[in-house]
């Protein structure tokens, strides 16, 4: 949806992770066929710090992060120079986000399969 709607206007990097970055895809110019080929792996424990550090080092001009999560993991101690929008599953936790006043938390009301 977003990649197609903003063709040529926006570049996104999709990152999957657990305690480190597992995969990375660059999504640009509505490359729908490439997006459809993406296979998401993972589903174990979560550490946000190594990923925040990876973003700082590899995408230094990053404007924002949209984190899709159940919210369970460690608190981010790495300095972030970008806003984070947390999209949290309906049964997730916002405990690690409570002190991050600059961030936005969005709660999912239901999951895709419901």
From TrEMBL:
Pfam family for this entry, one: DUF2201
UniProt domain VWA-like: residue ranges: 12-91
Protein name: VWA-like domain-containing protein
Species whose genome carries this gene: marine sediment metagenome
């Amino acid at each position: 949806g977003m990649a197609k709607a903003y063709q040529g206007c926006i570049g996104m990097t999709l990152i999957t992770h657990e305690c480190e970055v597992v995969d990375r895809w660059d999504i640009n110019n509505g490359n729908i066929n490439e997006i459809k080929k993406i296979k998401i792996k993972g589903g174990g424990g979560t550490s946000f710090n190594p990923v925040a550090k990876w973003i700082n080092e590899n995408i230094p001009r990053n404007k924002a992060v949209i984190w899709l999560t159940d919210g369970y993991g460690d608190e981010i101690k790495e300095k972030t120079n970008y806003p984070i929008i947390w999209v949290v599953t309906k049964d997730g936790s916002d405990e690690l986000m409570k002190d991050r006043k600059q961030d936005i938390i969005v709660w999912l009301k239901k999951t895709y399969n419901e």
